[in-house]
Amino acid sequence: MKQRHYDVVIVGTGASGLFTALSLPSHIRVLMITKDAIDHSDSYLAQGGICVLKSPDDFNSYFEDTMRAGHYENNKEAVKIMIESSPEIIEDLIRFGVAFERDKKGNLLYTREGAHSNYRILYHEDVTGKEITSTLIQQVIDRPNITILDYTTMIDLIVKENTCYGIIAEEKDGSQEAMIAKSTVLATGGIGGLFENSTNFPHITGDSFSLALKHQIELENLHYIQIHPTTLYSKKKGRRFLISESVRGEGAILLNENRERFTDELKPRDVVTSAIKAEMEKFGTDHVYLTLPSMTKEKAQQRFPNIYQECLEEGYDLTKDLVPVTPSQHYLMGGIKASINGETSMKQLYAVGETACNGVHGANRLASNSLLESLVFAKRAAKAITKQVQTLSFCCPLTLPSIYLDERSRAMENLQLIKKELQRKDPIFYEKWCHFSSES
Ligand SMILES: Cc1cc2nc3c(=O)[nH]c(=O)nc-3n(C[C@H](O)[C@H](O)[C@H](O)COP(=O)(O)OP(=O)(O)OC[C@H]3O[C@@H](n4cnc5c(N)ncnc54)[C@H](O)[C@@H]3O)c2cc1C
């Protein structure tokens, strides 16, 4: 099998992978790979925005909102780090060229989403993820120490005695290659691609988690899966279009089959999701309705251009019509157990972003905390990796197998391992919410 050698291999080109790469010094040789096109990440799809501590006197309230949404199961140290680091991370983004919305005087504008008691979310129209991710991608492309391979899939880790020496990847042409590295970073996002109804890209299928199960890398709370209350209902197959919480933050209401309001639309996601599910069961329907009559068409087109247009293409004017919405899989709070510096239970292996579970979100994520979390802990992981890389030399102590399973068999193996783990961790949640795409 062919081999390549880099100081660091990063698997995934979402916000967390990109920011890890950009936070490493320029003398470190980095390889980034991604399973699909470079901008096909869930980070790119983020609509609502990114939280920030806009002034020190909002700390307690922001901390409490995050803890309450997470059912107080959050790792308090991680929450504190995330909030305190947020102004620095936003400065980094602005320095890289991210354009957040501002008023005429140039002051940053803030919006609000469910379970936030204050306006503290920065945004760019309703395509914040696209703005952040494409800016970071351009920065990465401009760095001579970073190589990017798209349409290249990690299919295994190179492991000996609980130490990771890189990955095995399958490239565009189907050839398999050993990518040897002193440090390996898993930034492969969540598991939405496995689900029948999800807001995630279909290729984001939790590959890191099945490899973790295979190599006995510690996982934490893999069953902590967030179901987003409001995705555009459609009979078509494929990715579910998200109608961001910021639409409810700006006044949209939820109605049942009798056109009655049935919940406080700004409660945490899991509470709103349960309320919707109860109404669907009560009326025997597969959706409820969302509408934004308090906003003019012109204002909605300016504030939510992407969401307004997508609803229109399905035949609904968000400001006048009742838009059918239904809950879908959206985010994973659990994942590979990671320290506040991204270290996993395996030496020389790091996890960042949605793949990692450092406990910051507890049992349920507060809206717009995930882009921030991805960036804060990616930067910290990069610091730890920089120190480690200096102390190591290249080594691949294994005789590598010449061929791995084909794509379809790998996908089946991946699904079976993850299904088993989810069922083991929470059989009731599994029964109620875990419907997988390959089984529909
Ligand atoms: C529709 C939508 C809207 C959202 N809105 C917001 C929001 O407003 N605010 C907020 O904070 N968060 C939001 N989120 C969540 C947020 O975008 C993600 O949780 C976060 O960006 C995750 O980033 P990541 O880098 O961990 O993973 P991702 O951005 O998901 O990137 C994963 C990467 O891993 C690659 N990959 C996966 N498997 C492999 C493999 N085997 N080999 C090689 N590469 C692989 C993928 O190709 C991709 O490049 C939203 C998510 C969605 C889906």
Mean model confidence by pLDDT = 94
Secondary-structure element order, N to C? EHEHEHHEHEEEEHEEHEHEHHEEEEHHH
Low-pLDDT parts are none
Principal-axes shape call: globular
Structural class: alpha/beta
Number of helices: 13
| Bound small-molecule species | flavin-adenine dinucleotide
The count of strands amounts to 16
Report, as a whole number of angstroms, the end-to-end distance.
37 Å
Round the Cα radius of gyration to an integer and report it. 21 Å
Give the DSSP E fraction (strand runs of 2 or more residues): 15-25%
**Proportion of residues in helical segments:** 25-40%
Instruction: Say what oligomer this is.
Output: single chain
**Main sheet specs:** 7 strands, mixed
Account of the 3D structure:
- This protein has 440 residues and is an alpha/beta fold.
- It is 34% helix and 19% strand.
- It has helices at 15-22, 42-45, 59-69, 76-96, 128-141, 207-214, 245-249, 269-283, 297-303, 305-313, 370-391, 407-425, 427-433, and strands at residues 2-11, 30-33, 50-51, 121-122, 146-149, 153-160, 163-170, 176-186, 219-220, 225-232, 253-255, 288-291, 323-332, 335-337, 349-351, 356-357.
- Strands 1, 2, 5, 6, 7, 8 and 15 form a seven-stranded mixed β-sheet that branches. A four-stranded antiparallel β-sheet has the order 10-13-12-11, with helices on one face. A three-stranded mixed β-sheet has the order 9-14-16, with helices on one face.
- A hairpin with a 5-residue loop joins strand 7 and strand 8 (176-186).
- It is globular and about 65 Å long.
- The chain starts with a strand and ends in a 7-residue tail after the last helix.
- The model has no long low-confidence stretch (mean pLDDT 94).
- The structure holds flavin-adenine dinucleotide.
- The site of flavin-adenine dinucleotide has 43 residues, from helix 1, helix 2, helix 5, strand 6 and helix 11.
- Flavin-adenine dinucleotide is lined by residues 11-17, 33-36, 40-43, 45-50, 128-129, 153-154, 187-189, 199-200, 203-204, 207, 242, 331, 353-355, 368-371, 374.
